[in-house]
Design a protein that fits this description.
Blueprint: H1 10-42, H2 45-69, H3 78-109, H4 117-144, H5 147-176, H6 181-202
Length: 212
């Protein structure tokens, strides 16, 4: 689906992306701490993975913050943007490998997680919050000609999907006692992350990246 760029100046676009990026960092720091703590308490790999994804999201947001800081230099942003995009792809890959390994281990060992009400509440809130931030950032990517902005917004979208998947796994475990739903949800998460790692790594630069 094509994203229509809003009619605003480049300076205003940078300001807005920086604001949305800071909000993303703040939310994910809180989300990550709560999710990992709840996941450890419940023995839920999907919750722990969800919390770690928040850490990856913070990492990609920091990469994006570095990319936005280069706007002060002026000139062509293509080199900076490509480097930032590759870093973001690396963050996706690390998440996919770790979560996939832990999910398979939980399935093999048949480790049943406990019910986690805090985890379900957190995932529910994230399902609402993250798509809003993702759409806001994605719409501004074409204004800056920044594939890094678009790729980072995909990480935020992934967080929303992960929230829904984790919520489904936690709910199935809580309501039906399907312990395997938790690691299966984590495997789905790893699959999403792998796909985004490949897509982000192969992504072409946007046509006006040099128009800084």
């Amino acid at each position: 689906m094509t994203t229509t760029a809003p009619s605003i100046s480049r300076v205003e676009a940078v300001r807005r992306v920086r604001l949305y990026n800071n909000l993303t960092i703040g939310w994910n720091v809180v989300e990550g701490i709560v999710a990992v703590a709840a996941g450890i308490a419940a023995g839920s790999i999907s919750l722990i993975a969800f919390g770690l994804d928040s850490g990856v999201e913070v990492s990609t947001s920091i990469v994006l913050a570095w990319r936005l800081a280069q706007e002060r230099r002026g000139g062509c942003m293509a080199g900076y943007d490509r480097r930032a995009t590759r870093w973001i792809a690396g963050c996706f890959a690390v998440l996919a490998v770790y979560v996939g390994y832990e999910a398979i281990a939980q399935l093999v060992e048949q480790r049943a997680p406990d019910v986690s009400v805090p985890g379900m509440v957190l995932a529910s809130v994230s399902v609402i919050v993250m798509p809003v931030l993702a759409r806001a950032k994605k719409r501004l990517g074409p204004v800056l000609g920044s594939q890094a902005v678009v790729s980072e917004s995909r990480q935020t979208e992934l967080c929303a999907w992960l929230s829904a998947v984790v919520l489904a796994g936690l709910a199935l475990n809580a309501l039906l006692g399907w312990w395997w739903a938790d690691p299966v949800a984590a495997l789905a998460l790893a699959g999403f992350a792998s796909f985004e790692a490949i897509r982000t790594w192969r992504a072409d630069s946007l046509e006006d990246t040099c128009c800084a």
